């Protein structure tokens, strides 16, 4: 879904969430993990491939 070295913005993904854990403040529901970095960066460093589970969040205007 991304071209070249374009970064995936987890903040715009429906699977992203903020945790209460100060050591792991960001999470990904699609992959089921919490991390200190953005989940897409963790996926990229672990697998060498960009996140394939990115789904844009629905906004109030697009939920019609």
Topology:
Elements: E1 16-18, E2 26-28, E3 33-35, H1 39-47
Antiparallel strand pairs: 1-2, 2-3
What would you note in describing this structure?
- The protein has 64 residues and is an alpha+beta fold.
- It has a domain at 10-47.
- The chain contains 1 helix and 3 strands; from the N terminus they run E-E-E-H.
- The protein has one helix at 39-47; strands at residues 16-18, 26-28, 33-35.
- The protein has a 3-stranded antiparallel sheet with strand order 1-2-3, with no helix packed on it.
- Strand 2 and strand 3 form a beta hairpin.
- The chain is globular and about 35 Å long.
- It starts with 15 loop residues before the first strand and ends in a 17-residue tail after the last helix.
- It comes from Paenibacillus phyllosphaerae.
- This is Uracil-DNA glycosylase.
């Amino acid at each position: 879904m991304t071209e070249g070295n374009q970064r995936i913005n987890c903040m715009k993904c429906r699977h992203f969430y903020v945790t209460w854990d100060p050591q792991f403040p960001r999470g990904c529901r699609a992959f089921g993990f919490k991390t200190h970095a953005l989940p897409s960066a963790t996926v990229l460093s672990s697998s060498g491939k960009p996140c394939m589970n990115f789904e844009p969040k629905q906004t109030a205007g697009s939920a019609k």
